[in-house]
């Protein structure tokens, strides 16, 4: 019923030629094999056009990793949702913990980004997740719930239906420490319950991805859980072979 999704988040990795090579390898790895798993590549801004040309017509989705909270104008260095759309993106990662942590991304700013992304018809991949400290204090459900409420609850059900949510415990990102399948499942079920309290049945159709040291060796166990609809993959998305192997883990 829900779309299975494996999305790569390349972060600030690869030069343009390296990214082109990686995209070609992903494409070569899946070519000719129809699959019910939606693949998305989350690439740096500089790579969007070139990677877009390579994956054009393949069914692979193209995501940016951020967008501006303003529509256009004198905001040096920013990239708007409409620019992303015009460059060929269909998706945009919003609220990644690295942006929240290092670039002062607030819920308020994310509300603006989300609205602009949706106005342009971009599908947001909206990230939530708690820190280790918050989990150890037993606050993880509350923290994630408020991230969902403060931002996604500004949408109407029609728009909410197209949002992809990614649960990424901060302590599991790039650390090699994966949440256990049980920990991930219970948080995903909680997120879906929170979404259902606002959007009703729409929540049943929303894909919720797990992210945080997801790799070929643990993807199968995670994806087997009822509320885990795929993954947002950082490190392992930089190797085409690993990325494809994760996509085959359902
Ligand atoms: P990781 O990153 O797979 O390298 O832990 C995931 C993410 O931050 O999206």
TrEMBL record:
Catalyzed reactions: D-glyceraldehyde 3-phosphate = dihydroxyacetone phosphate
Pathway terms, separated by semicolons: Carbohydrate biosynthesis; gluconeogenesis; Carbohydrate degradation; glycolysis; D-glyceraldehyde 3-phosphate from glycerone phosphate: step 1/1
Domain of life: Bacteria
GO molecular function: triose-phosphate isomerase activity
Family, per entry: Belongs to the triosephosphate isomerase family.
Subunit structure, as described in the record: Homodimer.
Protein's UniProt name: Triosephosphate isomerase
Organism per entry: Candidatus Merdivivens pullistercoris
Lineage of producing organism: Bacteria, Pseudomonadati, Bacteroidota, Bacteroidia, Bacteroidales
Gene assigned in the entry: tpiA
């Amino acid at each position: 019923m829900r779309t299975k999704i494996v999305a790569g988040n390349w972060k600030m990795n690869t030069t343009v030629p390296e990214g082109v090579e990686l995209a070609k390898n992903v494409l070569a790895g899946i070519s000719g094999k129809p699959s019910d798993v939606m693949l998305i590549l989350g690439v740096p801004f500089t790579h969007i056009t070139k990677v877009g040309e390579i994956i054009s017509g393949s069914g692979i989705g193209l995501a940016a990793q951020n967008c501006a909270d303003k529509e256009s104008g004198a905001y040096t260095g920013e990239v708007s949702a409409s620019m992303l759309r015009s460059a060929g993106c269909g998706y945009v990662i919003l609220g990644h913990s690295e942006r929240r942590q290092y670039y002062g991304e607030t819920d308020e700013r994310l509300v603006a980004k989300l609205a602009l992304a949706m106005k342009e018809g971009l599908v947001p991949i909206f990230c939530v997740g708690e820190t280790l400290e918050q989990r150890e204090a037993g606050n993880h459900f509350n923290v994630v719930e408020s991230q969902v409420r403060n931002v996604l609850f500004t949408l109407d059900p029609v728009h909410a239906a197209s949002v992809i949510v990614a649960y990424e415990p901060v302590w599991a990102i790039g650390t090699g420490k994966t949440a256990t399948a049980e920990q991930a499942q219970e948080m995903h079920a909680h997120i879906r319950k929170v979404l259902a309290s606002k959007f009703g049945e729409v929540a049943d159709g929303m894909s919720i991805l797990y992210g945080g040291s997801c790799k070929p060796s643990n993807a199968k166990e995670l994806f087997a859980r009822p509320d885990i609809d795929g993954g947002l993959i950082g490190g392992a998305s930089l190797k085409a072979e690993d990325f494809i192997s994760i996509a085959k883990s359902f």
